[in-house]
Each structure stands twice: as structure tokens, then as C-alpha cells.
Amino acid sequence: MSGTSSPEAVKKLLENMQSDLRALSLECKKKFPPVKEAAESGIIKVKTIAARNTEILAALKENSSEVVQPFLMGCGTKEPKITQLCLAAIQRLMSHEVVSETAAGNIINMLWQLMENSLEELKLLQTVLVLLTTNTVVHDEALSKAIVLCFRLHFTKDNITNNTAAATVRQVVTVVFERMVAEDERHRDIIEQPVLVQGNSNRRSVSTLKPCAKDAYMLFQDLCQLVNADAPYWLVGMTEMTRTFGLELLESVLNDFPQVFLQHQEFSFLLKERVCPLVIKLFSPNIKFRQGSSTSSSPAPVEKPYFPICMRLLRVVSVLIKQFYSLLVTECEIFLSLLVKFLDADKPQWLRAVAVESIHRFCVQPQLLRSFCQSYDMKQHSTKVFRDIVNALGSFIQSLFLVPPTGNPATSNQAGNNNLGGSVSAPANSGMVGIGGGVTLLPAFEYRGTWIPILTITVQGSAKATYLEMLDKVEPPTIPEGYAMSVAFHCLLDLVRGITSMIEGELGEVETECQTTTDEGSSPTQSTEQQDLQSTSDQMDKEIVSRAVWEEMVNACWYGLLAALSLLLDASTDEAATENILKAELTMAALCGRLGLVTSRDAFITAICKGSLPPHYALTVLNTTTAATLSNKSYSVQGQSVMMISPSSESHQQVVAVGQPLAVQPQGTVMLTSKNIQCMRTLLNLAHCHGAVLGTSWQLVLATLQHLVWILGLKPSSGGALKPGRAVEGPSTVLTTAVMTDLPVISNILSRLFESSQYLDDVSLHHLINALCSLSLEAMDMAYGNNKEPSLFAVAKLLETGLVNMHRIEILWRPLTGHLLEVCQHPNSRMREWGAEALTSLIKAGLTFNHDPPLSQNQRLQLLLLNPLKEMSNINHPDIRLKQLECVLQILQSQGDSLGPGWPLVLGVMGAIRNDQGESLIRTAFQCLQLVVTDFLPTMPCTCLQIVVDVAGSFGLHNQELNISLTSIGLLWNISDYFFQRGETIEKELNKEEAAQQKQAEEKGVVLNRPFHPAPPFDCLWLCLYAKLGELCVDPRPAVRKSAGQTLFSTIGAHGTLLQHSTWHTVIWKVLFHLLDRVRESSTTADKEKIESGGGNILIHHSRDTAEKQWAETWVLTLAGVARIFNTRRYLLQPLGDFSRAWDVLLDHIQSAALSKNNEVSLAALKSFQEILQIVSPVRDSEKPETPPVVNVPVPVLIGPISGMSRPFIRTDSIGERLGRYSSSEPPLVTDELEDLNLWWAAWNTWYRIGSESTKPPITFDKLTFIPSQPFLTALIQIFPALYQHIKTGFNMDDLQKLGVILHSAISVPISSDASPFILPSYTEAVLTSLQEAVLTALDVLQKAICVGPENMQIMYPAIFDQLLAFVEFSCKPPQYGQLETKHIANAKYNQIQLFAPAEWVALNYVPFAERSLEVVVDLYQKTACHKAVVNEKVLQNIIKTLRVPLSLKYSCPSESTWKLAVSSLLRVLSIGLPVARQHASSGKFDSMWPELANTFEDFLFTKSE
Known about the structure:
By secondary structure, this protein is mainly alpha-helical. The chain is built from 61 helices and 14 strands. Strand 1 and strand 2 (438-441) form a beta hairpin.
């Protein structure tokens, strides 16, 4: 109070006091002398006090009774002017706090007198206020008297006084309580033992209270008494009081000083014992009253609810619940239940309105709602208050739509005021407000003809009431239409907003706390760990409790909320209102999701989904789930029926799109309104922001979005994003421009939604994937059996989800690709095309993604990514396979270098293409293979090379496209070349791999199984290559066989030296002989039908116009190739151990080929026979490597240069040594002569079999009879001399016999007449055919050998003579070839030959041959006439006997030269032989010769022929 106690202020006060007293004495001079005297003595008193005391104010206060006395006396005069002057002076004293308690008491008594005389009422009030507010000297009775004074003035007739008094009372009541608060503050440090309040109503039980507290207590107690219409205990002198004013005062005290009641048991006692019963008692008329019920039916007349009291009671209740909830749990339960009842439809409209306003006040206080839930809903035998409040709001809203409202007794004519939200006769018009000719639509709810406007009543989150503030109204106000609905709507919105933000905030705190404790949990010391454990467990308990409350809150309110919000959503015609409803549904869905409350979450989501789709849209997912959740509940609210109500007329909804429903059967069109689109956006928003908590309800969300996307005609584009597509089903999709501009936005949000899946946790992501998969399965089911455009939404979104989650692709790869593979097998082409598109895009993206660790270090992931590509090979649709191969091609082009362990999969995909899968597929796959062979062989693991060989081979066998087969054979050659160039590296790597596998196999206890085991791995690679080429050598197409054969023999020839020695065994038996067997078999069974053309316009040469002839070529090529290998590689083959067996097999093949009924094959067989017999020593000189130096070191051997290589390839490895082994000048020791001899005798036996079989005349003859050709026979006979060189040592008479038979038969074979002009010389020339030459050569070789041979060989001479003489006889008597009739060339002129029928056979002109034979005989005889065997075997006699024939014929000989030669020959023979005969005359060996000679001469000289 420095302002009033400063020296200046004190001085001023003294002056003022003195002047006041002077003024008083002047005023009273005439009329009131006692007052004048008192005033003057007062002046002296003041001066004295001022003079005597330093503390003037304190002294004034001490003497205040005396100082005030003159002024009190002045008031007693009841003279207005004097009174006013005195009151002003008294107020001045009060404001300087110089009034003592006694003085104050006196002042109050004086004021009371003035009040009773109704004087200066306003001034009185002012004085009381100053007295009570400036200091605290007034209490107890004085205070109560002052308060009663104010109350009494409140009830005067004067309005101004009334109002001022009311304000003063309010202020005074406040002051009383403020004093108590201040008192508590002062004594706060002194802790007292609280004394238990005795539970009686005796007002004297307040002895324990301090003075100010006591005053407050007495005042409050009396206020309750007054409102209850009872006599006050303390406020003595009250004459009248109104309940409304009392309730207002109670409310203000409760509202402004809650701590007083909470801290003092005495006050709490008053609350419980006085206030609550009072409120409940006063509420009773409202509870019992039913609007519209006739009074006569009830026994006693029911008191009508009275608006001013009811409204104030509700205000008191609001305060009680808000401030003292914790003290008055049971009472609040009653209050809240009452409030809920006031919302009933049979209550007056104003009552319902104020009740809704009251409820709104709680709805904005989530913590309070939480307490309700904890105290009531979670207690076993308690009312479910929180649930009831929400349900009541729902029923209230529903009743506004459904119950025809009863009119108010108010006599207003306005339809809108007549009832609360009642139905209006013309709802459409009432919603329109004309503004300057334009029509604007008011925001409103409309439902089944009931139209209710939405009023703007409050700012979001604050409950600003309208009717609860109408403290001046006595009559119930008229509630505007839509007001109650709007408040109820806001209640719901604020309730949702409050609960969700509170729970989510707390959830967030719990989560962060959990994180921090887990972070701290890693501290090292034992004690802190224990503390942490303790705190964590406390926290866990706390969280469990909190979570229980949260769940109960949601469980209690969700059903009622959903019922009400769904109804409002359906009825809303205002975009902003719709937005708010959807936002509420969305936040509830998200909250339920976070708390794991599946049923409620799904119910809210279903509501949003239903709102997105057209009314009655048949979407099974939605109908089944909601119906189930709803039918299980049986609440007392009508909310249940709300859910089932069918959607109302959409009179105020703008239709923005018309489209096809997504269904199996076409069902006409459906319409989407702007509200549907709004709901769709909310749905997208929900999925985008709260995807992590959607769980299984992804199914609902995605199913709905799929249908909307379909109706709007969005189609997937690359990467899975949906773009507005043209309407595929014809012109059924109609979109307004409003929606057209929205579509890109929607499509964008849709994509963003799936992009945000990268932020979901793994479990949520799986929920999303599962939902998409099951959605896709439904779409697949719908697309079965029809060619309608399928819904590709799910597939497109699976792709999008996969692409954005590449960083953790492992966890979703299997379900994702597994499903897409199923889609790829779908019969609907659009469907599977997208399945394949999605799958291949994912694989490519997966391989190019920058994984951590990179793919090169994470083989498992790489194989995982490539595996679906392999799986696609099991699908037979060509379009899918084409996509698969295109994908492979792209992977090769972008990732080829880094495929590593993925190669077998990629190659497997190429190799899986089957022959029947169409040319384009094979072509694409082959393109991939070509790329691999040209670019990637060096980068792939060597273990994959075998797969490359297999795949290339398999393309050779495809018969769709000849060029591909031929090119693939070329690839095999390139591959073999690569093996050759990189031999060393490949060998090393394969050996390493082999060792590892061997070890693994041993650990597992299994046998290592691979083809061509136990050859070393590198050799196995070669063998696989050879085997593949071998398969191609027996392909049905001649061109392929030819190319493959050439390649096989070239590669064995060029690269065979790389093989280990032992591997050659496999090459011979498993590759070459196996091939020969198959070729022989195919050739012998080949078709002899003529082939007209080779496809297209290609003409076929007559030598290849049957399958048999084409196979013949193959047989020729193969046999020649094998023979060449035997010839050139004999030094490798002979040491193998079973060379003689191989030799036999080869000879067997040669024999069967030579005996085949095909001139080409048989002749070629003999050529091969010749080739293998030309071997002089195991290594031909031309093939010998240079002799290595004497020092025994491995020498680099030059192999090559091979075709296609620019430089010779030097090797210093074991291959060089291998060659070195065979390069010494003397033949290897392995081949001893004995074995060699056996080989030659085997060859002789083969030769003999070929000769005897081929020259044996057939038994019957017809046009098709096969007769060996002259070149064949010539070749056959020409083989003998070479062969004989090797077997001459063991050649005996039997063998000679065999030879003779063959020579004789061969000579006898006739020629086909069409070939004769080429073989036969003209009849005039005496020339031998080459066959005849060969026969004579063979005999010549023999006789020369005998000549130089040992004695035992010379017994063969006679046999040779016999043979030759037999030939000589041909001159006159050509040999018969079986039963074949032949024309004799000698009897025909040359030109006649042209006339022979084509199938006829011509015997040769044997004359020159016979004559030459005769010459040989003569020559031989000259040499051997004296030989013992020649003498013994009567050779001379046989010669003469033979010559007798031509000599006797003489001119009848076919050729006249014959008898002339015979004559000269006979003379020569005789000139040599006769001396020998005479010599041996005694032995009698020539006895029979002489008669023969005589007969011969006789026949010649006396010939019978002319």
C-alpha cells in the first residue's frame, strides 16, 4: 500500500479528513447541532493524532471508532446530502485502511439502518464493497450482516439497484473465498493434522477452521440452504431469495475456487452432503416430465421443467463433474445418467438442446472422458457411462432424423421454430437461399426426406454453448432448426479428436520411453541394470494399465460413434461436413489399428469403403464383414439399426462419374458421386498414412480401391502405376470434367500409397502383400472363362510394392513371385501378360538394385531373384515364354558380366524351350544363347560350360528352323575352340571344383555322380561336347547330320590331343562306335520313298531323293571320319589295351557298310578299309613331331595352327609330355608284332567276308536285284595286295582257295547297261577294265611273293595256274553270273548298246582279259616249268587242255585274235614244257599230257568250225 502510506498520501488524507469534517459541521450547523459538535471535536482529534504520533495511519486506525463517529452520526441524519458526504468520507478512510474492526462493525450497523430506510442504496453497496475488498477486518457476524445487506438490496423494486446488488453479491462472495485462499497461502508452511469431519450437519462443527475459512464455509452452507428453500444459519436477516440466483452463486464459487473444496474436508463434506442432493432434488421435474403425456393419466400433476433452473442446474453439474469428479464419483454417475436421459426424444426440445450443450462440454475434455471410462465403464457393477454418452448421442442424432418431432407449445408460426429439426414440408426449398437471383445450397444433412441444416456453432475443440449462457431468459427459448443436430455432430467430432489425440500422444510417449529404456539397458554396471529392470517393469505395468484404459475407451465408444457417423456420412450434403465425418472415421480406424482392435478397425474402414462405392454395390468383402460385426452386438441403442439403414436418396449429390461395375456378369452401369470420390480420397489417405496398422483390413481397402479404379477406368501402365485408360468396354464409362482433373491426382495418390509401403514394418508389408494376392486371386477367378478385360489392379500394385521394397526384397519375394507365377498361367491373355510383365520387371529391378551387401557377395539372394525366371519355364503359354526370354536377353545385356552363380538358371531358361513352342520363341532363345557364346563364356564359372554345351546341342535338335540348328552346330565349334584356347585355366578351375564336390559328397556319404565319370572334369567337358555333336549326327535332317558330322570329326581331329590318354577309350566306345551303331541302324531302316522336293521350291538331286540315299551320305561321312581317327591317332589308341576289340568292331562296321545294298556306301566303306590298312607303322612320318632333344625335359610342342587361330598355341603342360611319349623314332613297345598280326588277319577275314558276300550271285533276279558296281569290285580287289603284304607269312592254300573264289566271282559280275558306255571300251579296242587289271595285279603280287617265298609256299603255283587258266577260258565261254541273262558285248556293235533296256545287264568283253591271262600263264610257266609242284600237278597238261578250246573253235572264237594268241602261246609253252616232260618221262607224271596234246592239234588242224 505504498501509494496510500507515503508521507504525501498521509498528509493529503489528513487534509481531506479535516475538510470532510468541516464540510459536515457546516452542513449540520443549523439542523443537527450534535453532529456539528462531533465533527468539530473530530477535527481537533485528528490534529492531535497527527501532531503526537509518527505512525499517523496506525494511530488513526487505533482511534478509528472516534474518528468515524461524526460521519456515522451524519448518516444517522438520513439527510441525503449529509449521508452522501459521510459515506464518501467513510469510504476514504476505508481505502486507507485506517478502520478498526469495531469501527467496521459500527459502520455496518449504520449501513443496515440506511438499507432498512431504503436510503442511498447504490452508495451503500459501494461502501460495503470498499469495506470488504480493501481489508479483512470484517468477519463473522459483521460479514454476514454486510452480505445480507447486499442480498436485501438485490430484491428491491429498483432495477438498477437490483442489478448492482447482484453484482456486488457476486463480488462479495468471491472476496470471502479469496480471503480464505489467501489465508491458506499464509499458513501453507504449517502442516496441521487434518481433523476428520464429523458426519453431522451441525454448523458449529467448523471449529477447526481458521477465521476466513469459517466465513467461507458458513456462507457456502447458507447458499445451499437458501437454494433448497431452507432458513440460513448464518446469513441472519434474509427476507427473500431466488433459486436461480442461488444456483448462479453456487456455480461461480464451485467454478472459481475448486481447490477450496478439494483441500478442505469440511468443504468436501458440504459438496457431498448439501450440493449433490440439492441438484438431484431440483432435477426431478425434468426427469419425470414426458412431453405429450396427458397429465390425467398420472395420479399427481407433474411439475413442468423450468428452463432457468434446469439450465443453471446443468451448469452446476458441468462444474461439479469437471472440477470435483474425483470427489463425487458416485454422484457424477447419477448426473451423467441424467444428462443422457435428457436427450430422450420425449423431453422438451430446449432441454435436449441444453443437455447436448452440456455433453459437448465433456466431449472436449478427453482426460475427463478417460476418467469416466476408468471409474464406470471399467468397473464391474457400474453403469457404462462413457458408452452410454456416445450411444445416446448416436440415438439422439438418429431420433432427429427418424422421430416425427412434437411441436413446442410456443405459438410461433415459423415451421423451422416449431420443432427441433423436424421434417419440413418442402425440404428442397428450405435448403435454398436466394441471393441476388443465384441459388446457393446450405450445408445440411438430408435423410429420407428429413432436411436438417448444419449451423456453424463453435470453433473446433471448444464447447461454446448458446443456451446454457441464457441466464436472463425465463421462458424456454426457441431453438433454431438444426441447432441440436449441429451441436451433437460437433460433440462426436470433438470426442473423436480428443480421444484419438490423447491416446496417440500417450502411446507415443510409451513408445519413446520403451526405446530410451532399452537404449539405457545396455549400461555396464550391475546396480543400474537392476534399476533399469525395475523401471522397465514399472513402466510395463503402467503401460498395461494405460493400454487397458485405451482399449476400454475405444471398445466403449466405437460402436455408437460408427453408427452415428455412418448415418451422418450418408445424410451429409455438405463437402466440409463430409470431410469432417470421414476424418473422424479415419482417425478412429487408425487408432483402433494402433491398439490392435481388429473388429472396430475393420468396421470403421468398412464404413469408409462403403461410402466410396455406389449405393447397394455388390462387394462381398464389405457386406460379409460388417454384417458379421453388427449382428453380434446387441446394444440398447437404436444405433444398430442405423448401420442397416439403406442409403437415402442422393438428391443433393452431384454425380461425377458413370462406369462399369467390376463383376463377372455385365450389370449395366453404376454412378459415382462427388461424395464417393471424397470417401475414396479418405481411404487413400488412410492407407497412405496408417498402412502400418491396417493388418488384415488391407483386404477391405484394396478391394474397394480396385472397384473404384475399375469404375473410373484407370488401367495399369509401366511400373504398375495406374493411368486413366480408354474405356475398354465401350462407351460405358462417363467422367465429368471435375473428375477428369481429379483422376491424375487419384492415380498419383494411389502410386504414392504403394510407394509408402517401403516405410511399413515387415509384418504390415506382409499383410499388404497377402491382401493384394488374395485380391488378385479374386480377379483371376472372375477372369476365368471369359475374354472380358480383367482387373489388373492387384497385379499392378504388387509390382509397384515390390519395386519400392527392393531393399528388403527377400522377405516378400517368395509370396510375391509365387503369386505372379500363378497369374502367368491364367488363360486370360491380358491377365497373364501383366503377370509376366510384373514378374520380369521385378526380376530385372532386383538384379540392378544396389543391394547391401551387393549381389556378387550374396549368392543366395541372386539365386532367389533368378529362380522365378526359371519357374516360368514350366508355363506353356508362348506369350509368357517370350516375355521370359526377352527378360533373359535384357538381363544378359545389362548384367551378363556379374551373373556368377546365376548362370545355370539363366542357361536353363534358354534350354527349356521345347521343339513345339513356335519359331519366334526358339529364335529369341537362340539369340540369347548366341550372345552368351560370343560374349560371356570367359565370365561364367567353368562349371557352367557343360550347360552351355547342352543348351547349344538342344537348339541343334530343334526342327523348327534349319538355320538355327546349323548355326548352333557352328556355336558348338566356337565353344570347342574356346575350350582349346583356355584349356589350362578351365582345367584348373574344374579340378578345383571337382575336389570341393568330392569332399562334400564324402561328407554326406554319397557317390559323386556326373556323366563320363571317372574321366577328369575337363575331359568330361569335351566328352559332353562330342556326345552332343554325336546326337546331332543322327538328326532326321540331312543338312544337320552333315554339318554335325564334319564338326565332330574336325574338333576331335583338331583338339583331341588335349584329352587324357585314358579318355580316348571313352571317345572310341561311347562316342564314335555309339554313333556308328546308330547311323548304321538308321541307314538300314531308312525309307526308300522318293522325296519330291526339299520344302519350298528347292529341287533335290536324284542322288539324294530318298531318305535312304540321304542317310547313305551320313553313313559315308561317319565311317570315313572314324576310320580317319583310327588311322591318324593309332599311336594313341593302340596302347589302350582293348585296341584289338575296337579294331574288330571297326572292321565289322566296314563290313556291314561294304555289304549294304548301296553303291555309294559300299564303295566308301572300302575306301575307309583302304585307309586303315595303309598304316605302315603306328605313326606316319608326316605326323611325327620332331625328335625331342636327348635331355629328358618336357618340350613345348606346337599344336596347330588350327583354323580360326592367328597364332600357334604353345603348351608346356602334360599334353606336351603325352605327345612326347609317342614321338620317339622307334615304334612304341606296346604294339608287339604278334598283336599286329592278329589285327591283319582280322582284316583279311573281313575282306574275305565282304568279297564272298558281295560277289555271290543272287538266287533270283528281278528289276531291283542289287549287283555290285565295277568301282566297288575294283576297290575290293585292289585292297588285297596291300593286305597280303601283312599276312603273307601265314597265307596258305585254303586262303588261296578263298581268294580264287572271290576273284572268279568278281570277274563274273556283269554291268548295268546304262553304265556300260562309261565303263566299257568300244568293242574294237582290246583294253582291260580296271577290275580285270586289279585281278591280274592281285595274282601277280601272289606269284611274286611265292617266287621269293619259302619252299612251302611254292606248292601254291598250280593253284595260281588253275585260276589263270579259268580266266583264259572266258575268251570263248564267258562266265555265268547265277541265272542272269546277259547280252554279250562282243556280239554287239557299239551302237546297239544304246538299244538295251535300262534294266538289262551286259556281260563284259572278256577277250582282252582272257588273252592277258594267257600271256601271264605263259610268262609264269616259263619261270616255273621245272618246279616240283608244277610238274606234279600236271600244269602243262592243264594249259594244253585249256588252249584246246579256242584252238578247236578257231574262227568261231568271239575274237579272231584269240586263236592266234592261243597258237603262239601253245608253241611257247611247249617249247619250255616238252623238255621238262621228257626229263620227267620216267615218273609218268606227263603220261596223260601227250594224248591231250595230240587231241588239241587235231581239233585245231581239223576244226569243225568254218
